[in-house]
Every structure is written in structure tokens, then in C-alpha cells.
Amino acid sequence: MAKTIFEELGGKYERQGDYLIPCIALPAEEEQPIGTWGQRHLDYLMQYRRVTYTHLLTSGRLNTYLADIDRQAQERFERLIEGMKQAQSITERLKEENALEWIGRLNNIRACAREIVNKDIIFV
Question: Which residue from 59, 63, 61 is spatially nearest to 34, judged by alpha carbons?
Fold first, then answer.
């Protein structure tokens, strides 16, 4: 019997009853921890960028890609917070003098930084 294109490319079949089922497995990928930013981007890919998600998954690069996105987003988030704190003169002295105002202003900065990171990195 002539070989199929799948067999010519190195593929193998497994017999199950009367059928030959191709033996297909995803390439091994190093597991890396993925944080909140990576999970958000994964949800975005699965809902709105199915082709990109499928390509990354089948090529075995999804976990590495998401870990890199997570790292980039976290670094950008921290840089934005520090820059905004300096621009608005939010210091430890304000924390000592008026803790509630310090918390409110810091929460506002975090919300703004989160929106920027979402817009620039996560939902792209």
C-alpha cells in the first residue's frame, strides 16, 4: 500500500478496531508560572483571537508567550505606578500625615496604570 502524505512527513497511525487514527501530540513545552496579566491575555486570545491562540497552542509556545506577556505587563505596571507617584508627589510623608488620602490617591494611580497596561499590552 502506498504511503500517505502524513506518513511521508514522518507521521504514524495507530490501529483502533477497523480504523487507523493518526498519532498526533503537541510538542513538549516548559511550564512557567503565569500571573494575572497572562491569564487576562489568555482569556482575550481565546475569545477574540482564536487563530493566534490555536497557532501558539499547536506550536507549543503558548505558555512561554503568556509568561513573557505577564512579565512585560507587570514591569510596565510597576514603572507606571512609580512614575505617577513621583508626578503627583505621593510620598511616605503623606502616608504618615493622612493615610486615607494616601490610600485613595494610590488606588486611583493603580486603576489608571491598570487601564494603560490593559490597553497597551493585554488587549492587543
Answer: 63
- pLDDT 10s digits, 56-69: 998 889 999 999 99
Which strand (E) or helix (H) includes residue 22?
A: strand 19-22
Task: Give dist(CA 61, CA 56) in Å, integer.
Answer: 5
- How open is the CA angle 112-115-118, to the nearest 5 degrees? 150
| C-alpha to C-alpha distance for 27 and 57, rounded to whole angstroms | 9
Residue from 36, 117, 32, 115 nearest 75 by CA: 117
User: Which SS3 state, helix, strand or coil, does residue 105 take?
Assistant: helix
Q: Distance between CA 50 and CA 55 in Å, rounded? A: 8
Tell me the helix, strand and coil percentages in the chain, rounded to 5.
65, 5, 25
Would you call 20 helix, strand, or coil by DSSP? Answer: strand
Q: What one-letter code names the amino acid at 19?
A: Y
Grade residue 1 by pLDDT with cuts at 50, 70 and 90: low
Which stretches of 61-122 are DSSP H helices?
Answer: 62-87, 92-97, 99-117
